[in-house]
Write a structure and sequence with these properties.
The complex is a heterodimer. Chain A is α+β, with helices and mostly antiparallel strands. Chain A has a single domain, classed as Glutaredoxin (3-Layer(aba) Sandwich), CATH 3.40.30. Chain A is built from four helices and five strands; from the N terminus they run αβααβββαβ. Chain A has helices spanning 6-20, 37-42, 44-57, 97-109; strands spanning 29-34, 63-68, 80-84, 90-92, 118-121. In chain A, helix 3 packs across helix 4 (97-109). The radius of gyration of chain A is 15 Å and the shape is globular. In chain B, the strands form four sheets. Chain B has a five-stranded mixed β-sheet with strand order 7-8-6-5-9. A five-stranded mixed β-sheet of chain B has the order 11-10-14-12-13, sandwiched between helices. Helices cover 38% and strands 14% of the residues of chain B. By secondary structure, chain B is an alpha/beta fold. Chain B starts with 8 loop residues before the first strand and ends in a 7-residue tail after the last helix. The longest helix of chain B has 18 residues, at 461-478. Chain B is built from 25 helices and 16 strands. Chain B folds into five domains: 9-95, Glutaredoxin (3-Layer(aba) Sandwich), CATH 3.40.30; 133-340, Rossmann fold; 353-436, Ubiquitin-like (UB roll); 441-530, de novo design (two linked rop proteins); 543-597, Alpha-Beta Plaits (2-Layer Sandwich). Chain B is globular, with a radius of gyration of 28 Å. The chains are: A alpha+beta, B alpha/beta.
Chain lengths: 128, 597
């Protein structure tokens, strides 16, 4: 990494757009595992590991697997957000390895959200 | 934004996180520009709304009164929409929404917890990898710093923060813009800017979440404050009990340094600024700003006399600005969207939003960000989901050990600095502990007083000795040795401790006691006169006797008693053997019928 300029800031933002707005990039889906202290304490590391294993087993390369901090609803961790291109993002709660595997097979790979574990779909309201 | 009746058409443009990421801000600007160009700005209004749930098809724009649902709207569509829809009254077919497959998963906006929140501080929550600086930049990280360095003077920056009405989020509520302005005035270098990440209030974790989940927002806020006041060095004081926050902040600092966003000649604009993390060592009093600065100097953390204020002479006796984590996290949006925008949210005296850590006896435990002025009732019941286990709300403690309790009769109090003070509580850092009817208010007061006794630095006699005397008296009360006159004694001593202690710890330490006496006097009286704890919490003040007329003979207490002190047979009321009973209260917490007194 070298020192950046104002122009570089804008370029990085554009370059990363494909990961923030799926339809504009080369990825088909994005899985975000929420790993703040609450999530980690509740078992998010296992959930993350399960997705990694699943993706490796099936040789998946067009899905982003990433993590973030606390999603806010600490009482229902471990939580993940799954976004498949051209569908609303879905938040899942109270997960474990088994549920993660099911979500991977049914939602991420086959495009059908798993209603049993889903809390809500859509995004939060960010003022601005 | 209010909907004006003068307009004949309204464009409800979604400004939820998803649509913002897809560029709804640019769409709004393009629409407003086009409407102005055609002189239609008084006929059609563009209003930003919350998330509609169809993020994948965003930006979403719903037109009223027609109710037409446009999706994937781009800025370049603005002339077409204005020409066709506003002028000619024709729907733009190509932008219409085609029905999404029916799903039985509710929308975020319809879930009380998420739908009523409005994120500024937590704007990146759940969306970025905290250890990836590119993720942050993709969501406008450091765009505020870039704007400040290229388009604004330090005075401009201070003006914008003043205009915003931002007040210190650590609990003091001092206007941030004024603090920066004062610090700038002193021509004595070097100057420092410090981030208070000590977060000592029990039950508060807002700052931890920001430091763990969006560390760059803090670094950027600090850099902008350094530019504004003329400081080249910043410190983040993080409590040692937050190892993940320290780790994430350090990674963020390292990455920012690599990109030249910290260090010498930032972004090539000749501005030098760097940050160092200083971990705390487990003292609540080090959250007090002057004690914190002594701690960084390697001295004992004890608050000092003011004047001089830290803006004039703080760390190493140099001009120092200190702000809370949440305060700094508000700076990037204020610089990018303007102080006026920030001031349009909230109430007259309390602008913007506030993050609360909602904990205790509430269904949706978590982090909540709401506009100032939201009612506490809405926070607990609409967002928090109410009280679990079919219990009833009793009180909410706001402001931690310096705060007070808000009981049922005033639960619709507005959340802002002044209203909470009037009610005998205070905003504090934002920790809200909800208590149900199985909570003893006397025991709660004792708990917070004990915390203050342990954390007192010891300098002031009223705090050091007075609180201890109050604690001993409270302990006697909960153990059944309370006497008539104890409550009056606590009230008098509480007033003295509060008015004659030097720092914020002592000045407010008696608040939990004073506010519980104010609203729950009958509970104190029951402890003292009847030697009974109505909430069945204080073991010495419970009879541990089964009331046979209430016992439903379910056997639950019998099955769970760890000492085998209960005898029960089917179709018989249970009986407790007081010789074997260890007063653990397991039977009481298990009994669904309140049959044990």
């Amino acid at each position: 990494m070298s020192k950046i300029s104002i122009e570089d800031l804008k370029k990085i933002k554009e370059r990363e757009r494909g990961k923030m707005v799926l339809r504009e990039g080369e990825y088909r889906a994005k899985i975000t595992v929420h790993m703040g202290t609450c999530g980690i304490a509740a078992g998010a590391r296992d959930v993350m590991a399960e997705f990694r294993v699943a993706m490796a087993e099936q040789g998946v390369t067009d899905v982003i697997l990433t993590n973030s901090g606390c999603a806010g609803l600490c009482a229902q961790e471990p939580m993940i957000t799954v976004e498949v291109v051209d569908q609303s993002p879905v938040k899942y709660v109270l997960l474990d390895r088994e549920k993660a595997r099911r979500i991977f097979d049914e939602h991420v790979m086959s495009g059908k959200p798993v209603e049993d574990y889903a809390l809500a779909r859509g995004s939060e309201t960010t003022a601005g | 934004m209010s909907v004006s009746p003068g307009y004949r058409m309204q464009f409800m443009l979604c400004a939820g996180t998803g649509c913002l990421a897809s560029g709804s801000q640019d769409v709004r600007e393009a629409m407003e520009k086009e409407l102005k160009k055609r002189n239609l700005q008084d006929e059609a209004q563009v209003i930003t709304t919350g998330c509609n749930g169809f993020c994948a098809r965003g930006p979403i724009m719903v037109v009223y009164p027609d109710g037409v649902f446009y999706n994937q709207v781009k800025p370049e569509h603005a002339p077409l929409i204005v020409e066709e829809h506003v002028l000619k009254g024709r729907v733009v077919q190509s932008l219409l929404f085609k029905e999404e497959a029916k799903e039985n998963i509710p929308l975020m906006k319809d879930i009380g917890f998420f739908g009523l929140q409005r994120l500024i501080v937590l704007r990146n929550r759940g969306l970025i990898d905290a250890e990836n600086i590119d993720d942050c930049i993709a969501r406008d990280g450091y765009a505020g710093l870039a704007k400040a360095l290229t388009e604004m003077t330090p005075e401009d920056v201070i003006e914008e923060v003043k205009k915003s009405g931002l007040r210190g989020r650590g609990g003091g509520g001092f206007p941030t813009g004024l603090k920066w302005e004062e610090c700038r005035r002193y021509e004595n270098f070097p100057k420092y800017t410090i981030c208070n990440g000590d977060e000592g209030d029990p039950g508060a974790f807002m700052d931890r979440s920001v430091m763990e989940g969006d560390p760059h927002s803090v670094l950027e806020g600090m850099a902008i404050s350094g530019y504004a006041i003329g400081a080249e060095k910043g410190y983040i004081y993080v409590r040692a009990e937050y190892p993940l926050a320290i780790q994430r902040l350090q990674k963020a600092i390292d990455d920012a340094r690599d990109y030249g966003l910290l260090g010498k000649n930032i972004l090539g604009k000749g501005f030098d600024f760097d940050i160092e993390i200083y971990p705390g060592a487990g003292a609540f009093v080090c959250g007090e700003s002057t004690a914190l600065m002594y701690s960084i100097e390697g001295k004992r953390g004890m608050p000092r006399i003011k004047p001089p204020r830290s803006a004039e002479a703080g760390l190493n006796n140099q001009p120092t600005n200190l702000n809370n984590v949440e305060t700094f996290a508000n700076v990037n949006p204020i610089i990018l969207h303007g102080g006026e925008w920030f001031a349009s949210i909230g109430t007259e005296g309390s602008k913007g939003t506030k993050v609360f850590a909602l904990t205790g006896a509430v269904k949706n435990v978590g982090l909540v960000e709401v506009p100032m002025g939201t009612s506490l009732k809405s926070l607990i019941f609409d967002i928090g989901g109410g009280i679990p286990k079919k219990r009833k709300f009793k009180a909410a403690q706001i402001g931690g050990p310096s705060g007070g309790c808000i009981p049922t009769e005033i639960v619709d109090v507005q959340i802002d600095y002044e209203s909470l003070l009037d009610a005998g509580a205070m905003m504090g850092s934002g920790g809200v502990v909800v208590m149900d009817d199985a909570t003893c208010m006397v025991d709660t007061a004792r708990f917070f007083t004990e915390f203050c006794v342990e954390e007192s630095c010891g300098k002031c006699v009223p705090c050091r000795e007075g609180l201890k005397v109050m604690l001993d008296r409270l302990t006697k009360i909960v153990e059944g040795e309370g006497q008539e006159g104890d409550v009056e004694f606590l009230m008098e001593w509480g007033k003295h401790v509060n008015s004659t202690s030097h720092c914020g710890l002592g000045k407010a330490a008696a608040n939990p006691v004073l506010s519980t006496i104010r609203y729950f006097r009958d509970e104190y009286d029951a402890h003292i006169r009847d030697k009974h704890c109505p909430a069945l919490v204080c073991p010495s003040l419970i009879d541990f006797v089964v009331m046979e007329d209430k016992c439903k003979m379910c056997g639950l207490c019998f099955r769970n008693c760890p000492s085998g002190a209960i005898t029960w047979e089917k179709k018989q009321p249970a009986r407790i053997d007081l010789e074997k009973c260890t007063r653990c209260r397991t039977c009481i917490t298990n009994c669904k019928f309140g049959a044990i007194r």
